[in-house]
Amino acid sequence: MNKADIEGVKSLLSSPKKIVVIPHKNPDGDAIGSTLGLLHYLKKSNHEAVIIAPNDYPDFLKWLPGESSILKYDSQTDLCKPLISDADLIFTLDFNALGRIGDMEFAVTHAKAIKLMIDHHQQPDDYATYTYSDVSMSSTCEMVYNFIEMLGDSNLVDQDIATCLYTGIMTDTGSFRFSSTTNHTHYIVGKLIEKGANNSEIHNNIYDTNSYERLQLLGCALRNLKVVPEYRTAYITLKQEELNTYNFRKGDTEGFVNYCLSLKGIIFAAIFIESHQDQIIKISLRSKGEFSVNEVSRSHFNGGGHTNAAGGKSDLNLSDTIDKFISILPNYKKELQWS
What we know:
By secondary structure, this protein is of the alpha/beta class. The chain has 14 helices and twelve strands.
């Protein structure tokens, strides 16, 4: 954000406001962590703030401070609509196109509120009056810390804010191993630990809460893993019946795609998950080096994201989706050989 934008936001927040904070549909650790971190900050600054998520999210995020106050638009629409229409300000976090909030899009688009975007994804739309967009950032949580610091309020960061922001940074950096993790990321993480974020406890709460069924589902996913060695690619498929067999719950497949990327010599990884409820194949893509899965997802699978992590979807059936995926690999042969 430039100096004029920072001063503009400071002016907006100089008196109590009604504020709605919104993450993207199917929010992940960065989306929930950043919205909760910002929520706690806004409340400490005497604003009337609420988070409205488009829908529910995995149970492993439901221990975060303040999580129980989050409203879900899909199941609490009548409660959420007036809050959106009456808001003075709407913060949109961890997404940069209103199409990412599903059924909330119409209400947010037509709200009278001034909109502010904080996000690190590529090619942001221009719906917000104030936009803090930086694709070099590891996570939206890192950006929220910067945002609070830009406003001169880093002294307000307490243990609750620190815990929420640390969680999102940790999850969006793959526990600090992705290339988006910079010295500045570690600087902020150090500050958050100073403020009370318990790094080992947070890691345990996120990663060490597996159910027996989830581990069985992981075993199924690994049995389904296929390798396309000539394109340094590996992928996993999961059918709806396999999800049902292991009592799939939202978030259970989180991180599965990274097992593909852990294979020696593999730089492009994908997971294809059949969803009868949504009538689509959900797709997650990961890569190493400079190979852009964001470009692959935008060009072929109605999605997008970052250079090394992106998501998308397919309206074809699972078999045809895999055929399409394999058919496009020759288009990227040069990049896959040299990345």
